[in-house]
Predict the structure of Trigger factor.
Amino acid sequence: MQVTETLSEGLKRELKIVVPAADLDSRLSARLEELKGQVRLNGFRPGKVPTAHLRRLYGKSAMAEIVQNILNETARKTLEERGERAAMQPSFALPEDEAEAGEVLDGKKDLSYTMTYEVLPSFELGDFAGIKIDRPIAEVTDEEVDAEVAKLARDSADFATKDGAAENGDRVTISYVGKIDGEPFEGGADENGQVTIGSGRFIPGFEDQLIGAKVGEERVLNVTFPENYGAKHLAGKAATFDVTVKDVAAPVAATVDDEWAKKFGLESLEKLRETMREQMQGQLGSATRTKIKRQLLDKLDELHSFELPPTMVEQEFENVWNQVTQDLQRSGRTFEDENTTEEAAKADYRKIAERRVRLGLVLSEIGEGAKIQVTDEELQRALVDRIRQFPGQEKEVYEFYRSNPEALASLRAPIFEEKVVDHVLGLADITDRTVSREELLKDEEEGQASA
């Protein structure tokens, strides 16, 4: 086999590879010998089928299999010998001429093809030990727990039918038919819809127009669907709802005590408060983690500048851009609504893609140097968590990941990233700063909006 470099430009490489016909024929002969003991043909005893006959029947398919194996072997061995790491799977350009390809498959002509790939860049890691990190910390107060318990009591309140008109906070049972331009629309009717006035769960203006309604009363409600409404055929359109009130029920104030707490599977009110505090503190902890991770990634990005594999950047950009455009379509918004243009947005998101690729390579280099590994147990837990997201399809999802190395790698990558981040944070100079819950979560919301 002869390997000749035809391109070395930046991170791009192209090699011309020639595999002699004699080598191909030798491999084919060995493969046909294997097939002798496997195939069953009428008129021949097992293992006694002439090789020439096998070559006529299976020669081309066996040679196609051999060529594929050669491509894989060549890629692996060539990269090892050259001391290079491919950024992505190499691509191959095989003979396009049908006659030439046929001669190769018949073992009569050398296999000549090109292998194109991009190498991972070599770079020096910046001095990340001792990076200064500001860690905002918020503690859940008793007053916040009290407020959350009170909210739970309101949200889980029982209702009792009452006489008189509906008020804010009441639950109204109605039958209704929605119409646009006087014609009923699909999904706009219900015989026993329940609306809690003030919950904000219906179209803006719908609940307010039920205030003062009584059992047996008929009303026509006038509303306008939001511009970003999920059903595109309704978004932004004016509609009417013909409503008949069937029941008005007022919330029954819950007695917040141990008995009430048992409704939620907890033995006492104190245990309920403890559980809620833990959940709220966990939320704050996640917000803190996100904040310091963003700081860390920002600083690592500042420390490193090197050439990036173009194909990796392009693939990452496509992933980001597809998500952006899908989000805009779902919300019914445009780039103009976001005070930008498609061209400007593409430029911004390409920078984000470059940052992601650069940080991915930096984190990988740090993790490799620190010998950080994702254990089989960690990967198995991630797989189980993923499978649980698809109830009823557990077997199919498991088989998909088991037979798809790239999909399995997508589960391993975030675990590896978090472990590397933990490693770097362990070396960082972290200063704790106490903030309020509102400040911590507000900052987090702003950070997500900015991202």
Observations:
- The domain at 260-450 is CATH 1.10.3120.10 (Trigger factor, domain 2).
